[in-house]
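Collaboration report, partner site 2.

Our partner group contributed sequences for two proteins of shared interest, and the home lab folded both. The records are reproduced in the order in which they were received, starting with the first partner submission.
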Amino acid sequence: MERRVSMGDVAAAAGVSAQTVSRVVNDSPRVDPATRARVEDAMALLGYQINRTARALRTGRFHTIGVVVATLATVGNSRMLEAVAASAARRGLALTVVTLTGREGVADAFARLQEQGVDGAVVLNEATAIAGDAAPPPGLRVVAVDSPRPAATDAVTFATVQSDHAGGAAAATRHLRERGHATVHHLAGPETSFAAAERERGWRETLAAAGADAPAPERGDWSAASGHAAGMRLAADPRVTAVFAANDQMALGLIRALSDAGRAVGDDVHVVGYDDVADAAEFRPPLTTVRQDFDALGEAAVTALVAAIDGTPATHTVVPTSLVLRASA
């Protein structure tokens, strides 16, 4: 029978002591980065497998984090999950994903994660609205993505991470105003979404600062189909010459509706989206949009969660956005 690779084997291959290998296995901070890298390379070369159960018994840490998500049907959620998974993998953390079926499932989701042995959880995007009133069980650290920051007086505090949604919306609205439009219409996201509310706030405040009226927004559910439905109403109004859509999917449906109505996007009507999805440059015309840095958001969320697990006070992180100019506006 083939002998299992031991810490001693790894130590010999890396040219360090077995105690140093043990410190690397247990994520001790008392190992310099170069030595840690050499030990990890030796582990990979020899096929050394960490006994996670034994390590958890020794350290009280499972080196696994959970992700709570309402749906993976939206681009934002799926991109965020991908980014969180990549950041966790770079730290050697395993990932457990739980999807919600409604508000009543939040407590069960937290309980399931704790039963499966996680050190903390990242709550993604729309799930934060559902989970807002559900306190995680004692000992489970939580980071919420796209959630209002808890008030200092709240009994339950958790770290939060978000894009600069309002700032991105303001940049989009200013750009459309600078193109000569008297006002900018808005295709908003769901009323329950924090991100949608922040983008709407940025749009409203920018128009107010310019002394321009804010037309009543159309509202969608993030899908292209809802953007098309709202777009047909907007296309029928000749006063609509500039539209800021709260995400790229809805902008895609909006562009189709405007085109079907014979209104040329990028000429008769200018459109700006939000997210900068991978296909935004392939829209017809290519879509001007606000870019969210999902990789940076995922990294910030995992960094905040690891810090919370280590006992650092809850933090609030805002990741910058940027306007990407293309032919639609």
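Second partner submission, folded after the first:
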Amino acid sequence: MTQTLAPYLPSIYAALRIVSGLLFAQHGAQKLFGLLGGTGPVELASIMGVAGVVELVGGLSIAAGLFTSAWAFLASGQMAVAYFMAHAGQGPWPVQNGGELAALYAFLFLYIAARGTGRWGLRP
């Protein structure tokens, strides 16, 4: 399977970056504007406001491939903090404490930060 997909790896990585960035941006839209079933808007000068800005602006930047590594590293850290602030105290395992998405985003964005923009990006 690896040999079959190898020629498509740059495109598959670009799709991963774009889709994960757009999905992450939706969380920011929920927080900042109350869109997509969100409870917002939240105060910008609050933890949730800053999280919303990182999610919306960072997610769109990651999807577009603009300052990808910097935004992905910031998003990864935010998701690690979110996991420990909101989920870790509710049980030892992410599947028990509802933190699977935060943990997955933390490691996904760490990978994207290390790998960079790749194909189909707007590199500055």
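Feedback sent to the partner group on the second submission included the following. The mean pLDDT is 96. The two ends are 35 Å apart (CA to CA).
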